[in-house]
Specification:
Distance between the termini: 61 Å
Largest sheet: 4 strands, parallel
Radius of gyration: 21 Å
Number of strands: 8
Structural class: alpha/beta
Strand order of the largest sheet: 2-1-3-4
Strand content: 5-15%
CATH superfamily of the largest domain: Nitrogenase molybdenum iron protein domain
CATH topology of the largest domain: Rossmann fold
CATH architecture of the largest domain: 3-Layer(aba) Sandwich
Bound molecules: zinc ion
Number of domains: 2
Length: about 300
Amino acid sequence: MVKRFVLSMLMLLLVISTTTACSNANATKKNSDGKVNVTTTVGMITDIVKVVGGEHVNVVGLMGSGVDPHLYKASQGDIKKLDQADIIFYNGLHLEGKMVEIFERMAKKKPTVAVSDNIDRSSLRLGNEDMGTEYDPHIWFNVAHWMKATESVRDSLIEIDPAHKEVYEENAANYLKQLEELDNEVREKIASIPESGRVLVTAHDAFGYFGDAYDIRVMGLQGISTASEAGTKDLIDLRDYLVNNQIKAVFIESSVPRKAIDAVIQGASEKGHNVEIGGELFSDAMGEDGTPEGTYIGMVRHNVNTIVNALK
Ligand SMILES: [Zn+2]
């Protein structure tokens, strides 16, 4: 008990000293092991920071596998992790809808970067006004947009840690090349699905950018954010669409409950049309750490292969 108390006092001192240091040196890193302490929100951003920052950063991601960022509320422990960071990266565009005020507060103390900020607004999809989302936040579904996010991380790391500029540039360049190849791979694979069956039906409307970028029609049961529930009319409309267009498969998402999508499948079956679950897609969260789907590239590849296998 005493030991734990001493430890927490030490942590408190550490927090106080880092916060004080922040106010006079905003753009330089200051932790003792020479690494930049980075705190991020969703796993896809954590992944960029790990790849681009390499050995020069310590990354703490707040949202793990299966976590829904739309509904995520920061715990006391999370606030501490944000407080201890030298720099914070988040998606923005209201993805982390319950954390907006926290980011505003953090931005007064330290670099707090929305990785979506350097994407031209004219290339964003519009969101849902009722939800307070001006733009669709799911930018990682267009790999080209995620390349912009990578550039944003690279530039911000260089700014806070200019001594390792060349490392960050090289790591980012390698990653950007892989993303460019991934972008081409996705486009080719989706194009291999016959056009009439090229329809992606999912639990929530996360795949809009994917549909735009890779030419597949997308229908989500819930809105842009999971904070709105699918109504009975949505269920009936989707059921009729599946039946009328003889769509073979729908998809569930790792971070969204499958109840509503099951109801639609049931409804279609009552109308004599058999719809299968085409598989589980990773939408707003990646797979478990240490699995291929636990990286951004692996997650995208899993999604595309799952979609192609079910619809081809
Ligand atoms: Zn979402």
